[in-house]
Amino acid sequence: MTLRQQSNSRPPEHWGALVAYFSMDVTDAFWPRLGFESARAMDECRADLRDMVMRLRDAALASPEPLPDIRDWLFGGDQLAWTPQEVQSFFDIGIDFETEHSEKPHISSWATAFLYFPDMFEPSVKAINHPDTIGHILEMRDSELPTDVPEKLSPWDAQICARHGWNPVDELDFFPPLDELSIVDNQMIADGILRWASANLDPATQRVLWENAQAVVEELGVWLPEPLNPLHLKV
Length: 235
Description:
By secondary structure, this protein is mainly alpha-helical. It contains twelve helices and no strands. Helices cover about 60% and strands about 0% of the residues. The longest helix has 25 residues, at about 175-200. The mean pLDDT is about 95.
């Protein structure tokens, strides 16, 4: 099955939002962390994507019924001047990209629970019983990227925000380009902590960590459809 065929599992709006995020200067640091792979500078990849976006807009104006499908442009031909590696890595990010807690409740719950490590993880801290190990988990947990919006956006970023109705000024507003990427980044951080714990903690300690995390999400009132999945932990 081709990438174009596989991309149908997510709607055009999903891919359109990711293209908008990726095209923005303000999101630059997130993409390598989320798995985008390129031998070129990010500025070059972004310039190619912006060129495709502009031509896609022109095509939509010229033929609004039906609108062009952005998935055709990303994965169906030669409209995007990216290498196969770049297209594949963008596809891999996008096909699994999910910020709704209800869609990925377990890794989302782990990410939430780790925000309260070590304060609400006293049983785990006692079981680990090693300051360097606690420190390493904290170092991984605190490796998230900042989501502060620059005082002045680039002209392209300002244009994208205006088109999508995103408000980069009001601190009370959710700013999708940074906040949605940060949610997925934190999911990946939590996944990395669990993989590390599986490889470096003994099974008994892993079980304490899992049971402790279950108690944390229950106390916080985090919704789960069933008991918290230990994912990579050997319990």
